[in-house]
Each structure stands twice: as structure tokens, then as C-alpha cells.
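Recall from the previous chapter that SMILES is a line notation for molecules. Here it describes zinc ion.
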Amino acid sequence: MNLHIHNTLTNKKDLFVPCSSAKSINMYVCGPTVYSEPHIGNARAALTGDLFYRVLKELFENVVYIRNLTDVDDKIIDQSSKTGIPISKLTEDVACIYQKNMLELNMLKPTHEPKVTDNINNIISTIEKILINKSAYISEKHVVFDTVAFENYGTLSKKIANDLIDGARIKPEAFKRNQKDFVLWKPSQNDKHGWDSPWGFGRPGWHIECTSMIKSIIGNNNTLDIHGGGNDLIFPHHENEIAQGSCCSSSKYCNYWFHNGIVLVNKKKMSKSLGNVILVSDIINRYDPSIIRLALMSTHYRQPLNWTDDTINNAKNIYEKISRTLNNTSQLDVTRDDNFLELLCDDINTPNAIQYLIKQAKLARDDIKVMSKLKYNCQLIGIVSNRNSIEINPNEKQIIENLIEKREMARKNKDFVQADSIRDQLTTLSVVLEDGPSGVTWKIKR
Ligand SMILES: [Zn+2]
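With both inputs in hand, we obtain:
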């Protein structure tokens, strides 16, 4: 079976062909900047990556899925000074909530979840490679990418010349030769958010973080198969990633780019000032994760998704029909259904896939063979709820044990506020802790 991906590079649906040199398929999706709690827009981006990952795993033996956490960024510094929460605590807490939320939404755990703060040395060495190739220059303690040095700049976003100036309407920056040039490394005034480097104490720019984390995992001279993210990242973030990745390596940066559309709430952009931000933590308290997944899948990932009461109510109705049909089938073996997989292989066409499931759920009531396919299909797109099962998957176990370890550490350091907040997080995961003489034991109470 062939997978087709709408490739932003070519602006058409392309047949996916893996890099011949690579033994496995590599896919990277830009994860969140961890400064505030994840909302349904973050969930949609993660779900798009999750669905590609699930389909790729059906088609190929080895799939490496990388989803990063951006824990170095100006937005983080701003939020920390606004709230008084130290940067490291802010980023750790938000990263933890993000990972917990994504697992609750039944997203498969990525193969790698690199953090920027664990990759500073890699980032410095990537910047050094770009400097050696004369594609960047040093100016006023900044390392700046020289966009003139990369003739293909603009091919992803299809922008030309003057359109390419990011933030051109903001004040021009004197340290840049060209206003479309962008920063790879910048000086830090805040002594808590910087690292020593050959160019002085400072921190990386946002774009270089992703390029460097990708290269450190797949190898500097390998091509990434697939790169995804929200379509607000096409320019400048992904355009700049291509420029950096092409100038630190001898190979093409990435073959296929997919981009998901925005989530609107009642046709309006989510914003704190409008008070219409829907947090994953809130919605997950109200609806089964499968319902939320179906709601997010109701529109094709490339289109804007308008979230209304109807979106979630329709998803709820569909889920109830399917789960009623699948009731008491825990012993039933599953059968792969190529017709369903084919719909997903058409650039992850979830609206068609959902219509297919609705019809299949009707037929399945009288036909056990159809039932076993329905069960398979629901598992494939992650809409079988694990909530009533007492089995816990290894990912969940790992997260729980990490949280318990962190809580123990906080208790040792007498940080009881932190310890209590971790206990609360564990409670929402239905984990019951028992502090005994030989340490902490835990169990799941469903
Ligand atoms: Zn990125």
C-alpha cells in the first residue's frame, strides 16, 4: 500500500518514497514551547503527527518518530518574569503536563522526545559547522545566518526577496547585514538562561534548536524523511530550518513536509485576551479521550478546524455508536482492514475514515468478521479507550515512575509544594500512592 502526503515543498500530494540510504523512516514534528499549558491547538498538531506515525508503522518496519520540547525560548523568559516562577520549574512543570496530556489523549509515545537544554553542545557544534561553511557571520556577540549564502532560501514558503523579512515591520536590527538574516546564537543577560559558548555567554535561536536535535538523532549527513508542524511554522521557522540544515551538511535536509491547520473556537482565534482558550486538561475532564480525538479528526488536518459545541457533540454521538457496537468484544481477535488503511494512506483523510467507521459499525452488529475489522480500525486511530482497562501500558508506567521519583526528590529537598503538586498529577492519572517503611508503592485505581 502506498502513502501519499500533501508535501508543502511541492504543493501537491506526493507518493511517499523513503530515503534509500536510511534503514528506517525518520519523522520529526515540532513540539510545544513549554511556557503555558497545552491547548487543543497543541493537541491537533500532536495528533496529526501521531496519525502519520500510526500509519507509517503499519507500512514500514522501523519508524523513528521525534517530537521535541522547546525549553529555551524568549516566551519562556517572559512568562517566568511575569509569574515569578523560576525558568527551570516552569519548563519542567509544563513539559510534564504536556506529556501527561498527550498520553491521556492516547498519543503513542514518540521514539525520541529531545529537549533543547539537553542539546546545547549539539547546537553549538551545528552552529560551528555552519560558520565553517561560511553561511553565517558573527556580529555584536550574535551568530547570524547569512541568507544570501543559501540560494534556495524561500523554496518552502514560496516567498521571494522582500517578503522574506521576518518581522520587517518591527524595528530593524543593526547587527544584521540583511534584515532577512536570522539569529543562530544570541547573548543572554539573564544568568539563569544561558550557556558558555565560543561566542560568549548566551542561548540558541529557536530555529537552530530543531535542526540540531534532528541532526543529532538521524546523523548529520542523513536526510530526514518527513517533517511536520502547524502551518504557522512554515515561515520563518521551517524555512530557516531548511537553510541551516542544508548549510551544516552535504545532504538534502528533508524530503516531505506536512502542515496542519489552525484550531478556531467559534470561528475565532484562541487567545488569552478573548478568554476562549480550550486547555487539554479541562476538556479531558469532561470527555473521553476518544471523543476528543474524533472531534479533532472531524476535519482534514490541512484545513482550519472550527471547534464548536457541535464538533464535540457529533464526535460524542459517533463514539457512542461505535463503542456500543464494540461492547463485550475484548476477547475478539482483530483483522487488518486494507480498505480503511487506504483512506488513511490518502494524506490521512480522517473525515472519510470516520464515515467509513460509522457504516462499518452498523454492519458489524450482524457480522463478526466486520466486527474484528472495526476493532482493528478503531485501535489503529487510537479511539479505543483504555480507561476501563486495568492493564497499563509501558509508556504510562514509565511516566508514573518518573513522577514518583521526582516527588521523592522534592520531598528530600523539603519542597513540599512541588511534592504535593506531583501527587495531584498522579491522582489525575488514577495512581494511588502508599508511603511505606521500604519506600513508595503504587497502584492504579480505576
Ligand atoms: Zn521546530
